Amino acid sequence: MSHIVIEGGRRLEGTLTVQGAKNSVLPILAATILHPGRTVLRGCPHLSDVEASIRILRHLGCEARWEGEALTVDAGVMSRGDVPEHLMREMRSSVIFLGAILARLGWAEMSYPGGCELGPRPIDLHLTALRQLGAELAEEGGALHCSARRLTGREIALSMPSVGATENAILAACGAEGETVLLNAAREPEITDLQDFLCAMGCRVRGAGSSTICILGRRQTRDAVHTVMPDRIAAATYLAAAAAAGGEVELRRINYRHLSTVTAALHEAGCQIAGGEGTLTLRSDGALRSVPTVRTAPYPGFPTDAQAVLMAALLRSQGATVFVENMFENRYRHVDELRRMGADISVADRVAVVTGVPRLCGASVRATDLRGGAALLVAGLAAEGVTRIGDIHHIQRGYEDPVRDLGLLGARITLEEE
Ligand code: UD1
Question: Which of 163, 191, 370 to mutate to test the pocket of ligand 1 (most atoms within 8 A of CB)?
């Protein structure tokens, strides 16, 4: 098993170009099958979750080919509509293929995605939306059979603005007769990126970024080229790293508006931040102070995916910061690992209180999930001595090459392959 080894205590200086967004490219890869032709995704990040999506596309009979940072998908031929269990297990968000396969073939089969490291992650909202479009769903021994002689557009109100359910509903609605109006939709920027991609492909989708999204189904599709939006969570991670370690970092290929709640918190903590078109600069002397309560919420609220990295940045701050995790049940698994480095964090249910300590000490730790793993990178950079992070496959799901990127910023960081 590989490890990431960090010798902490060095300031970060330099410029970094932010990778394409994981949470954007995954639904877009599922969406490529709506078009029986070629689509090119530029700025596609090389991530293990992207490779997992490619394996699903190939299993379905589609072709996918890398050329540098561009991924070309040819879905001219799609010979199957099932996703076997071993591919579903690799990545929970493969459930987004459900709506897309259904729209393309009129049926789909996949295993039920189980719980994951963040606690139970039900898909009831996804299934309700598909049923409302006319799909029949049957569950049998952990397998989902989904069929629709015909999908029909209609008004659908989500009981909660789930990101995945919004994406699944949009993709299925692209294959439905007439107009679908999706109410209480998620407003995350990744939904807007999906809409942009679908429109480039000839689909008619509007309203993304607001709570009401309209989809006019069964449009003639065409070959398309799309550039994946920058990853706001990877950006938040590198900002948190520079805040914690101290230094001055400029991020390029970024939409600073997507990061407003994260930069507001880092500003409160004492960092100087300046955003321009496509860039963001953060300066920190590494001596941070606590910030007002951080409550995770759907966009435009504070992103749950940035909770762990902000927490890691504040471990050495003056004072105490309260975190309230409102999105997922089991999202403090990084806390025990951070404690091994000397962090003072108490957790009760959804609330975590971080009391700043004067110093952190490098330790042997283990990534427990993707963003929890990223928090260990941030803490390791701010700690004295050597931090050795195991189970880094979690980190590789969402970060293209953190060793390269943080190394470029002057961190002493290496990948120890075994
Ligand atoms: C997506 C992101 C993930 C991010 C999350 C919230 C991707 C690949 N993943 O996950 O990184 O942390 O949004 O911003 O884009 N829920 C239900 N029933 C459902 C669906 C969701 O109860 O049918 C609940 C979930 O358990 C969770 C909450 O709704 O508590 C939010 O989940 P959702 O917005 O669906 O997140 P994901 O799409 O899974």
Answer: 163
User: Among the options 116, 199, 214, 361, which is catalytic?
Assistant: 116
Q: How far apart are alpha carbons 236 and 261 in whole angstroms?
A: 10
Pick from 262, 211, 214, 272: nearest CA to 235: 262
Per-residue burial over 294-310, b if 16 or more Cβ lie within 10 Å, else e, is: bbbebbeebbbbbbbbb
Spatial neighbors of 175 by CB under 8 A, at least 6 apart, are 34, 102, 103, 104, 106, 151, 217, 218
Question: Which residues are registered as beta bridge partners of 204?
Answer: 216
Minimum-distance ligand 1 atom for the alpha carbon of 327: 30
| Segment 205-225, tens digit of pLDDT | 999 999 999 999 999 999 999
Which of 62, 66, 65 is closest to 83 using CA atoms? 62
Q: Which residue among 117, 162, 182 has the greatest number of ligand 1 atoms within 8 angstroms of its CB, and so is best to mutate?
A: 162
Sequence-ordered list of residues with C-beta below 8 angstroms from that of 86, at least 6 positions apart, any chain = none
Which of 187, 200, 151 has the alpha carbon at shortest distance from 172? 151
CA pair distance 173, 308, nearest whole angstrom: 35
Find out whether the beta carbon of 231 lies less than 6 Å from any atom of ligand 1: no
CA atoms within 13 A on the CB side of 76: 7
User: Quick check: pTM over 0.85?
Assistant: yes
- Placement of tokens 């031929």 in the chain: 77
Burial class of residue 412 (count of CB atoms within 10 Å of its CB; 0-12, 13-18, 19+) = middle
Rounded CA-CA distance 361/338 in Å is: 10
Task: Name the token pair of 155.
Answer: 């008004």
44 is catalytic: no
Residue 353 φ/ψ, nearest 5 degrees: -115, 120
Check residue 337 and give its pLDDT: 98
**pLDDT digit string, tens, across residues 241-287:** 999 999 999 999 999 999 999 999 999 999 999 998 899 999 999 89
C-alpha of residue 119 to centroid of ligand 1, in Å: 11
